[in-house]
Amino acid sequence: MKHSVSVTCCALLVSSISLSYAAEVPSGTVLAEKQELVRHIKDEPASLDPAKAVGLPEIQVIRDLFEGLVNQNEKGEIVPGVATQWKSNDNRIWTFTLRDNAKWADGTPVTAQDFVYSWQRLVDPKTLSPFAWFAALAGINNAQAIIDGKAAPDQLGVTAVDAHTLKIQLDKPLPWFVNLTANFAFFPVQKANVESSKEWTKPGKLIGNGAYVLKERVVNEKLVVVPNTHYWDNAKTVLQKVTFLPINQESAATKRYLAGDIDITESFPKNMYQKLLKDIPGQVYTPPQLGTYYYAFNTQKGPTADQRVRLALSMTIDRRLMTEKVLGTGEKPAWHFTPDVTAGFTPEPSPFEQMSQEELNAQAKTLLSAAGYGPQKPLKLTLLYNTSENHQKIAIAVASMWKKNLGVDVKLQNQEWKTYIDSRNTGNFDVIRASWVGDYNEPSTFLTLLTSTHSGNISRFNNPAYDKVLAQASTENTVKARNADYNTAEKILMEQAPIAPIYQYTNGRLIKPWLKGYPINNPEDVAYSRTMYIVKH
């Protein structure tokens, strides 16, 4: 994604009708008479309140029900949403102009004050938002103090200059701030709607400002949305009904896709990849995704508190074998934490990448021996992962590599999601499976995760030099300077090994050939139903 803002002078983007991101049906296209889509989501949404969302299942639905200041196009580039233009002279004070025809589903105008209310609500400790930290990451004035209960929500650095002008003050310059406003956590909610009832997110009660409204919801069965006739670009919405089916078993979702019950799956079983390619060519997609699968080491206690142990373990993970043989669905080896597809990142070659696996294994043996482990005193550790066929397959492969090359005795431990999260949060592990899919398309979404104060720092990595270089990156005025800082940060991660990046995600999914307008190359998998349509078949 290219940044839509200048980082050295006044940044300004003005929208026009051609910049709206909606269904663009080519001239001469014959549409199906029935414009109804069935989308698979991986689980029952935890909440349809943007401030309470925690994962992809609800985010996919929320993107249809609400709209933020900006959207993303099929390439992941920023385009206007509720805002038609934005500007900043110093990357610290930002002004957004809102379109005057943006309306809530009840026909009332969407105003700057709606965003003020929504963002204050996001950081208010009473809301208990799992994504409140995102406002602090964005650097909005007083966000962290409010989250910590040290300031009132109305002290947040966001004000309504008038009904259609929103002013945001950051605590430091942030060139990519506009990109962050595409995140679902910054979507507006209507105050009157939220305060009307604790059940305001139910069908018939939820009032959003997105292209669709919630018509029906049967928990663990389906969510149905239909067009919001008050949406500012409703004239370009083609799909008249979208049904989301929560199915947490990939094999079950794939079976229903093959039976014709589903038009798009969120994924498919990796062991079916070759068969699917053979049986339904042209319907199997594996584009790169803005995400990294990795193992986090406990840097504070146990054998992995020793940097030499962590580095040895990381070096002996055969990433090439993992992606080509164990996975085999288009994934790429992760030689860095930041994926190659990330905007604004040109990685320097990793020494690991330039060595053969035999050379890496030999160096790893030397490191582990120096740490005091060997045939007479084998390293023993536990590898924890959350229950999943795929995670288990990878864990077995890695444990085998560690045993074969280093003589490590690995105990594999799987836990259900809630127990796993508790173990992760309390640091009750030696090595733990983890992954990160970027919240925005810029290297900092990955690298800040390992700063000493970040709540997502699973390994409890604490390195002042690392913190310093990332703080410096956020003040740089050019992409080149930031890229240099990011490569320095990646070098520290490689040497200190608080984590072992394993592979870069692909976004495997199945899509019916008659469905058009799906943004398959969006690296963050941002897919609005309003851009899609069904051709006659």
From TrEMBL:
GO terms for cellular component: ATP-binding cassette (ABC) transporter complex; outer membrane-bounded periplasmic space. Gene3D superfamilies: Dipeptide-binding Protein, Domain 1, Dipeptide-binding Protein, Domain 3, Periplasmic binding protein-like II. Residues 1-22 form the signal peptide. GO terms for molecular function: peptide transmembrane transporter activity. Residues 77-453 form the Solute-binding protein family domain. Pfam families: SBP_bac_5. It is found in: Periplasm. GO terms for biological process: peptide transport. Keywords: Signal, Transport. Its main location: periplasm. It comes from the Bacteria. The keyword Transport applies. The keyword DNA-binding does not apply. Coiled coil: none annotated. Belongs to the bacterial solute-binding protein 5 family. This is Peptide ABC transporter substrate-binding protein. The gene is mppA.
